[in-house]
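Hey forum,

I'm writing up a methods section and want to include a predicted complex as supplementary material. The small molecule is fe (ii) ion. I've pasted the protein sequence and the SMILES. Can someone with a working setup run it? I'll credit the forum in the acknowledgements.
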Amino acid sequence: MKAETLALPAFETLELPAQLRRDLRSDHAGETGAVFIYRGILKNTTCPDVIEFAEEHLATETEHLHILDTWLPATCRSRLLPLWRCSGWLLGMFAARLGCHFTFATIKAVEQFVVAHYEAQIVQTSGALQALLITLQSDEEAHRDDAAARLPSSNPGHALWSVLVKSGSASAVYLARWV
Ligand SMILES: [Fe+2]
Ligand SMILES: [Fe+2]
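Reply by user p_vandermeer:
Happy to help. C-alpha cells for the complex are below, copy them as they are.
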C-alpha cells in the first residue's frame, strides 16, 4: 500500500473548501462501509473463491480506513458511522447468502461507483491529497476488475442489482456528505 507513505499535510493546515470537506467525510464513511461489507461477506460465505477474494480486499480496505482514521479529524467524520457499519455488513451478508457470483456482482457495482466517486474529487484536488485519492482509487479499480474477472458474461439479474446497489451507494454518499 503506497498511500500511507504519502506525506499528507496535517488536515488542519489545509484550507479545504466546504464541498471537499463534505466529500472527505463521505470517503471516510464509504471506507468504513467497505470494511463492513467484506466482514459481512466473510461471516456468511463458505465459498473458497469468495473467502480468498474477500480476505484480500478486506486487507486493503482496512488500510484505506486506517489512513483516513489517522488523518481526518473526528469532527470531520460522519455522525452516522454505526449506520454505515450496519448497512455495509448487511449488504455483505445479503450478497454472500445469494451466492458467489452475486457477491462478485455486488462488489463490481460498489467499486464502479466508488471509482467514479473518487474521480470527481481527483479532478478538483492537487498535491498530496490528490495523490492519496488516486492511490485509493487505483486500489478500488483493482477490486472492481478482480470482481468483474470472476463473473460470467452479462446477466440481467446482476445488471438490475447493480443499478440498485449504485443508487443505494449514491444515497449513502449524499447523506454522509451532510451528516
Ligand atoms: Fe477502499
Ligand atoms: Fe475497494
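Some notes you might quote in the supplement: DSSP finds six helices and no strands in the chain. Residues 41 and 92 are 4 Å apart (CA to CA).
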